[in-house]
Amino acid sequence: MNSVIYHICTWWLVTVSTGEGARAVPLAGHVGFDSMPDQLVNKSVNHGFCFNILCVGETGLGKSTLMDTLFNTKFEGEPTQHNQPGVTLKSNTYELQESNVRLKLTVVNTVGFGDQINKEDSYKSIVEFIDAQFEAYLQEELKIKRTLHSYHDTRIHACLYFIAPTGHSLKSLDLVTMKKLDSKVNIIPIIAKSDAISKSELAKFKIKITSELVSNGVQIYQFPTDDESVAEINSTMNSHLPFAVVGSTEEVKIGNKMVKARQYPWGTVQVENENHCDFVKLREMLIRVNMEDLREQTHTRHYELYRRCKLEEMGFKDTDPDSKPFSLQETYEAKRNEFMGELQKKEEEMRQMFVQRVKEKEAELKEAEKELHEKFDRLKKLHQDEKKKLEEKKKTLDDELNMFKQKKTAAELLQNQAQQAGGSTTLKRDKERKKNKEHMCTWILLLL
Amino acid sequence: DICLIRSSGTHSSTGGSTLLGYIGIDTIIEQMRKKTMKTGFDFNIMVVGHSGLGKSTLVNTLFKSQVSRRSAGWARDEKIPKTVEIKSVSHVIEEGGVKMKLTLVDTPGFGDQINNDNCWEPISKFINEQYEKFLKEEVNITRKKRIPDTRVHCCLYFISPTGHSLRQLDIEFMKRLSHSVNIIPIIAKADTMTTEERQEFKQRVRKELEMSGIEFYPQKEFDDDMEDKSDNDKIREAMPFAVVGSDKEYQVNGKRVLGRKTAWGVVEVENPNHCEFAQLRDFLIRSHLQDLKEVTHNIHYETYRAKRLNENGGLHPISSSDTQESNL
């Protein structure tokens, strides 16, 4: 009797909950397909998981520190300067492992957000980045030969929007940016450096922010409440948004434990103390409860929206179900041909330009060659002239030398003759000189 | 809880640092499990083999329920169809909180005619039609959140226990379809053979399959890693499983067991000494159920899709704007 009731109840439960038109049948024993979730999970574990977080916020709001605190590690780099000319996105991928779960975590930071004087285009690079990740996935999905199950998913699963702790209201930059992002990514707004705000101010601040978001129609991520096991905690958390967080990787001794905290002269703000800030709530919601839901929402809602818009833009409609594979393929082919055509055109252009440049260079070189030749000729002529001059000079000198030689020989001849003639005179003169010398010596001696 | 972290990226830092303290990343397993249990699973199994091989009984034994209404008594009165028919029936079964929509695709008429030429064609067509249906849904602009999956995940091919070798039809069928669907060959009505006969038959069958180049599931080329390979090697060595099916229970040694009662004893279906049903069940349902689906989706479906998209690439509409491009 009991088993009959049991079977009827199971049957009823199953038909009510499935409602898919298939008849429910009771099982007469243990089959074993209840291991299905385990089989599926094991495969995913072997494969590894991906999670991508985008941090949007002004420079100096503690984005990097918060990431370090959330994932208990020091990620990278030095703090950025405030003089960036525009907003760029810097992305880093890390592999974390906890027990047997391998996670490929990508943290994307907005560098220079809010630093410019004119911030009208600040949101653009962020939107472009998010779209680029969707586009990459879409391209892979549209490929003929694709490897989707081993594709490294770079789509942003969660966007942490850092609100400056002014205590008053949202900045217009925040509103504009969040409005542009809410249909593309799961936004989780957080109040950064919330230890700058007192508790009473914080409550008012949160209310103000929430009401501004609602009145501006900004759709932030709601933690899902359809699964009974997490519905309660999620709905409580939904009411605590935006989370007021404090990040710190420094540890302080409180009691007999080392805790992550920020130490001030008037007290210590403990990061993991729920009375001090909402860090624990953020970690709980982001990682321990809803990580899978964030991934699923990104894929089934945001990505599908992007894909739909993109395909409609490319000119598709769902009206003709028969030719869907054809038209997608045709357009793909057409686009490819167009692309090839353009590529060829570009190649031609480049070739032309190249030929042109070569010609120019050639002409230049010819010019230079001509110049060189001319120079060489000139120099040669100069050299020859110089040589000629020198030779003339040499000749003149030679002539002079010859004349001098002649004169010399003539003079010598004369001298010889003179010497022979007056050779005795010289002798006489010498004797006289000697005599004079002797007379002088005697006179000197007599005088002394 | 001390774990490794390695980093790579646009601004790569040097080497790794250690994680201290629990983050909670491993909770994603639980999150994922909860989600899948909520959505439930689909599984589509096809049975192929000529009539009288106990296909329906075996499926009922596997899933311990009347998922196939063609029990032995009923089939006797049915006329054998003139051509191969494809009959698909779905049931929802639940176990341990896990809901599964099981679809059984029966192929009455296969191998039953005098001339069985091309009797695999309706089956091949059906399989491809399911891929086509899925593809059409997938290329829609506005897609369903969960595309209904009617693709055949597993095809149980029943080999007649002649004790000699495979028949020509067996080889033809498996050759043609092993590249578009996961085929698991099984030796039906194994209680007509002794253990030695069974072993010899198995060896011969395996050799023939190998010589004909038939890659049955689990295919060697799709083994993920060494662990997979060694697990699957053991299974491949033991295939094709020689099975006996029954939905009747008998009392044996004080226990109620599923079996077939004969004058010389009770053939216990779940007794590994009697037949290999338990092995088949464990392999099919308890360890490789998800893998069958994944191979179907990631490999067979992708092959179909690639072929389909390629073959329509040449069909350009001839128009003035396109003539230039088509000359490329």
TrEMBL record, chain A:
<keyword id="KW-0547">Nucleotide-binding</keyword>
<dbReference type="InterPro" id="IPR027417">
    <property type="entry name" value="P-loop_NTPase"/>
</dbReference>
<dbReference type="GO" id="GO:0005525">
    <property type="term" value="F:GTP binding"/>
</dbReference>
<comment type="similarity">
    <text>Belongs to the TRAFAC class TrmE-Era-EngA-EngB-Septin-like GTPase superfamily. Septin GTPase family.</text>
</comment>
<keyword id="KW-0175">Coiled coil</keyword>
<dbReference type="InterPro" id="IPR030379">
    <property type="entry name" value="G_SEPTIN_dom"/>
</dbReference>
<feature type="region of interest" description="Disordered">
    <location>
        <begin position="416"/>
        <end position="435"/>
    </location>
</feature>
<keyword id="KW-0732">Signal</keyword>
<dbReference type="InterPro" id="IPR016491">
    <property type="entry name" value="Septin"/>
</dbReference>
<keyword id="KW-0342">GTP-binding</keyword>
<dbReference type="Pfam" id="PF00735">
    <property type="entry name" value="Septin"/>
</dbReference>
<feature type="domain" description="Septin-type G">
    <location>
        <begin position="47"/>
        <end position="313"/>
    </location>
</feature>
<protein>
    <recommendedName>
        <fullName>Septin</fullName>
    </recommendedName>
</protein>
<feature type="signal peptide">
    <location>
        <begin position="1"/>
        <end position="24"/>
    </location>
</feature>
<feature type="coiled-coil region">
    <location>
        <begin position="329"/>
        <end position="407"/>
    </location>
</feature>
UniProtKB/TrEMBL annotation, chain B:
<feature type="domain" description="Septin-type G">
    <location>
        <begin position="39"/>
        <end position="311"/>
    </location>
</feature>
<keyword id="KW-0342">GTP-binding</keyword>
<dbReference type="Pfam" id="PF00735">
    <property type="entry name" value="Septin"/>
</dbReference>
<dbReference type="InterPro" id="IPR008114">
    <property type="entry name" value="Septin3"/>
</dbReference>
<dbReference type="GO" id="GO:0005525">
    <property type="term" value="F:GTP binding"/>
</dbReference>
<comment type="similarity">
    <text>Belongs to the TRAFAC class TrmE-Era-EngA-EngB-Septin-like GTPase superfamily. Septin GTPase family.</text>
</comment>
<dbReference type="InterPro" id="IPR027417">
    <property type="entry name" value="P-loop_NTPase"/>
</dbReference>
<dbReference type="InterPro" id="IPR016491">
    <property type="entry name" value="Septin"/>
</dbReference>
<keyword id="KW-0547">Nucleotide-binding</keyword>
<dbReference type="GO" id="GO:0005737">
    <property type="term" value="C:cytoplasm"/>
</dbReference>
<protein>
    <recommendedName>
        <fullName>Neuronal-specific septin-3</fullName>
    </recommendedName>
</protein>
<keyword id="KW-0963">Cytoplasm</keyword>
<dbReference type="InterPro" id="IPR030379">
    <property type="entry name" value="G_SEPTIN_dom"/>
</dbReference>
